[in-house]
TrEMBL record:
Transmembrane stretches, start-end: 102-124, 130-149, 200-219
Highest taxon above the source species: Eukaryota
Record GO terms (molecular function): transmembrane transporter activity
Keywords linked to the UniProt accession: Membrane, Transmembrane, Transmembrane helix
Protein name in UniProt: Nucleobase-ascorbate transporter 2
Length: 266
C-alpha cells in the first residue's frame, strides 16, 4: 500500500542561484510580456471593448505574476515565465461572451475535472484532426484580429505598407531560421562562451511577435515621420492612453467588489 507523502519546503536541499539562468529567465519574461500585451489587446478587440489603458495592461501582467508565483504555479510555469496564450482569446470572438464570470466558472470546472482521471481520458480520446481544425480557425482568427488594428492607420501610405510588410516577413523568417539552426546544430546561432548571453539572444529571437515588434518600432521611429501622426493612427490611440480618456473604460475595466481602491486607475 503506497503511502501519501506531502512535500515540504527545501526537501531537496537549499536553493541555488545562477546568473546565467537569471538572464535566461529575464529574456523569457521579456518575450512573454510582449506577447501577453498583444494578447490583451486582441482579447479587448474580440470582446468589443475599448483598447486597455496602460494601467490595465500592467495590472493584468502583475496578476499573472502573482498567479504563477505560488508553490504549484511556480513548479508548473517556471520554465515558461509569464505568458497569456493568445489562442485562448479567440473563444471570446466565436462565442461573443467576454464576461469574467465565465472564466471563473471555467476555472472551477477545470480544477474539479482534473481530479477525475476519466475526464482526462475522454479529452485525450479526441482525434488529432479535430484539434488541427480548431487550431486552424483559432490562430487564423487571432491573426486577423491583430491585423485589424491597421485600419486606424493610413494603409495607402507606402511608408506604412513597407513597415507592415517588412516587420511581418522578418517576424516569421528570423524565428524560423533560429529554430532550424538550433535543430541542426543543437545550439542557437548565438553561441559564445557566455551562456547567459546565448540564452538571452536565442530566446528573444525565437519569438515571432517580439521580433516583429522590434522591427516595426525601429522602422516606425527611424523612417521619415514628419506630419505623419494621422497616418500612424496616433489621434485614434491617444484617447485610450488614460483610463478617463474614454467613458466606456469604466464599464469594461472597473473591478468588482470595490477593488479599484486597491488598484486605482491612472
Amino acid at each position: 500500500m503506497n503511502r501519501i507523502k506531502i512535500p515540504y519546503p527545501l526537501q531537496w536541499g537549499a536553493p541555488t542561484f545562477d546568473a546565467g539562468h537569471a538572464f535566461g529567465m529575464m529574456s523569457a519574461v521579456l518575450v512573454s510580456l510582449i506577447e501577453s500585451t498583444g494578447a490583451y489587446k486582441a482579447a479587448s478587440r474580440l470582446a468589443s471593448a475599448t483598447p486597455p489603458p496602460a494601467h490595465v495592461l500592467s495590472r493584468g501582467i502583475g496578476w499573472q505574476v502573482c498567479g504563477h508565483w505560488n508553490p504549484v504555479g511556480w513548479h508548473v510555469w517556471y520554465s515558461y515565465g509569464i505568458y497569456g496564450f493568445s489562442g485562448k482569446y479567440w473563444s471570446a470572438g466565436s462565442t461573443r461572451v467576454g464576461s469574467r464570470r465565465v472564466i471563473q466558472i471555467s476555472a472551477g470546472f477545470m480544477i474539479f475535472f482534473s481530479i477525475l482521471g476519466k475526464f482526462g481520458a475522454l479529452f485525450a480520446s479526441i482525434p488529432f484532426t479535430i484539434f488541427a481544425a480548431v487550431y486552424c480557425v483559432m490562430f487564423g482568427l487571432v491573426a486577423s484580429v491583430g491585423l485589424s488594428f491597421l485600419q486606424f492607420t493610413n494603409m495607402n501610405s507606402m511608408r506604412n505598407l513597407f513597415i507592415t510588410g517588412v516587420s511581418l516577413f522578418l517576424g516569421l523568417s528570423i524565428p524560423e531560421y533560429f529554430r532550424e539552426y538550433t535543430t541542426a546544430a543543437l545550439h542557437g546561432p548565438a553561441h559564445t562562451k557566455a551562456g547567459w548571453f546565448n540564452d538571452f539572444l536565442n530566446t528573444i529571437f525565437l519569438s515571432s511577435p517580439t521580433v516583429a515588434l522590434m522591427v516595426a518600432v525601429f522602422l516606425d521611429n527611424t523612417l521619415d515621420y514628419k506630419d505623419s501622426a494621422r497616418d500612424r493612427g496616433m489621434p485614434w490611440w491617444a484617447k485610450f492612453r488614460t483610463f478617463k480618456g474614454d467613458s466606456r473604460n469604466e464599464e469594461f475595466y472597473t473591478l468588482p467588489f470595490n477593488l479599484n481602491r486597491f488598484f486605482p486607475p491612472s
